Amino acid sequence: MDLAAYAVEAEVEETHWWFVGRRQLFGREIGGLGLSKDASILDVGTSTGTNLRMLADLGYRRVVGLDRSDEAIRFCAEKRLGVVHPGDVCDLPFGYASLDLVLATDIIEHVEDDRLALSEIARVLVPGGSAVITVPAFQSLWGLQDEVSHHIRRYRLPALRNAVETAGLRPVRCFYFNYLLFVPIWLARQILRVFDIKISSEGQLNTRLLNRLLSRVFDFDVRTAPWLSPPFGVSIFVLAQKPIETRRPMGTILPRARGPVTDQAGSSNDLVARKAAGWNGLRGVLFVGLISVVLCAPFARYVGWLGDEGVLLQAAERMAQGSTIYVDFFEFLPPGGFVLTQGWFGIAGTSMLSARALATLTIAGIACFTYLACRQASKRTLLSVGIALGWMVISQGYWTQVSHHWFTTLFSMIAAWATLVSVEDSRHRLRGPLTAGIAAGAAIMVTPTRGALAMLAGATAVMNLRRYRAGFLAYVIACALIPISLIAYVIGRDAQTSAWDDVIVFTAKHYASVNPVPFGLWGNPYLTWIFPFAGLITLCVCVPNRRECLHDRVLRTCAAFGLAGFIGCFPRADGAHIGFAAPLVCPLLAYSLARVTWRWPAKFRHAAAAVAILCFVPAARSFWWKTYSALHAEIVATPRGRVSLAERGASEMAARIAATPSDDAFFFYPYMPMLAFLTARRQVSQYDVFVPGYTLPSQYQEACLDVMRSAGWVVIDRNWTDPKFLAGIFPAMRDFEPRETRRFEQALEAGFTFVARDGSFELRGRVPAVDESVCAGITG
């Protein structure tokens, strides 16, 4: 480990939430061994003495440390934590069968031959002796701390268990821990990597308030991880034992029973049934995921509109270049979608192909979790596959793109599936609420309104505090993890004031007023009627079975998510937004259809399936036409890759922009951030979108000054300056040409002369000697 990292660890290990929580976990596990206080104990890789502190507090008297670093030994001596010898875990200076307990916590990941290290630990243990082993988990979490600690690898639980068994030890208890902070730590490490932040150790990233908060979260984590056995975590814990054949001395433990003794034949049958159901579910997920990717593939280069997708992509690129969201440029959405997109660009590169790969993975993930949620609700595999793929066919094409709405839907569907699993799985009571809470917290940090609705829907399954108090507490804590992490990210960038003004104040005052549209506007009939149809089928189930339905937690959960999806369509409940929210009602639709048809003879169910397929023929034909159009559209080369631009004149305008000097600055007006991204030209204004009644006079004024100071060219989409066009897009808009908009556009025309027009796109060049005086009068 770096010498600077030793210094940081020595300073913080006594109070830092991570060290304190680990000591509590190790103390409980060691206390359960029943060892004598005179047991011989070795702490391998003592570092600055955190385990020696814990063992002393537990009252053990014969404890010795071992570390190959003179600096670590010096720190332990200064703290008077006990005797620490120099030595190597691969060549332990102890005799055969001489120790009752060996601690190797976060040590074997430092050595080239980890199996030799584990064999040495097994050699020095007495028969029946125990080893406590921890290692960092998941290579995807590799970050700064791995570098400064000189790690060689991170592990997965199966590989570590196999290595322990090969060394001659018997794993008794194995589980991941630090699972609640898995996502925040992953995000934090991506941020450190992307921004190349240089610090001596991650232990420095702490404050008194944050330490107090994370201490409580981590304490809950290490208390629940041993019996919850989460499928992931930042670290792995293994308690292993050296086998004995004839006797079991004090200190030896046996594996804990995982449940009551039952009839073995019945248990075997249940296990076979669960494995078969799990295999069917896995095959369904793989099938839905594969078909979803195939359905999205034709639109990998297709750009139907130069608007919303570019907001995310251009913001992510700005952040990667060092700009601070909310400070250096305006956004009214929370940081979740931007951080996610920026992280993806950091992994896959900044290009159109990588952007569409992110979109495809997101949409395919929505389809997979829609299938899983439907199957969990209905127990019908084919019905669930049909609903998930039916949604894909009626929703994809024009909107197969990176969108904050798709991110929100993905997290909402993960929450829906996890909530439904928790309702029926009593063996892992907290796994579902924890997963659902993390996903719902992520959703709210991408799109606040829809995310909050998904969060409330997930809470319905654990609202009975008398019966589900632990589940409710786990859900609430999990819901807070992602928001706390992203708020800390914003505070760390000193952007909290600007974020409050942009995300909270601005949206509350200005966003909703111009966006209301009639329900189903521009939508196909399948999307328009999916919510009413699901409600009708649910009534058919509930009316004759009112009492049963009132106590059906699965139905209540499905109904809560369906209602969240319906409300989440508003205020702009057009076809696109219904398509974004439709997956949330699919579990309710699947549940109700399964209940309605469960007594039908097979031939009637087959006939109903045939009718449903025939009804979808028009939708399939429409999707085929969109696919054909996307695949046969003209392809043009851009700095972000080869794309097909659907809007008339966009390809020609992109070519004109490419012909200008590469260092010329552009202003794109009023609503085409995607063109700025594709052409790799800097937008001189901090604002990407200008809409009457939405954009403030002060924002027009700021943009005008930026343009007159810096821009060499202006690109205008004349469709978006036409009152008739705006009336079709924003029926609720009262004034299509307010004073500030007219004055701003007059300033653009005065400062930039006409050069060319392609379709609705107009290119204007800077007038010599123009100055900021043309911006006078915009704010009144």
Determine the mean pLDDT: 88
Task: State the end-to-end CA separation.
Answer: 63 Å
Shape call? globular
Q: What can be said about the biggest beta sheet? A: 7 strands, mixed
Q: Assembly state here?
A: single chain
Secondary structure: helix percent: 55-70%
How are the strands of the biggest sheet laid out side by side? 3-2-1-4-5-7-6
Residues in β-strands, percent: 5-15%
- Poorly predicted ranges (pLDDT <50, ≥5 residues)? 246-276
How many helices? 31
Number of strands: 14
Counting helices, strands and paired strands, the structural category is: alpha/beta
Radius of gyration: 30 Å
What is this structure, in a nutshell?
By secondary structure, the chain is α/β, with parallel strands linked by helices.
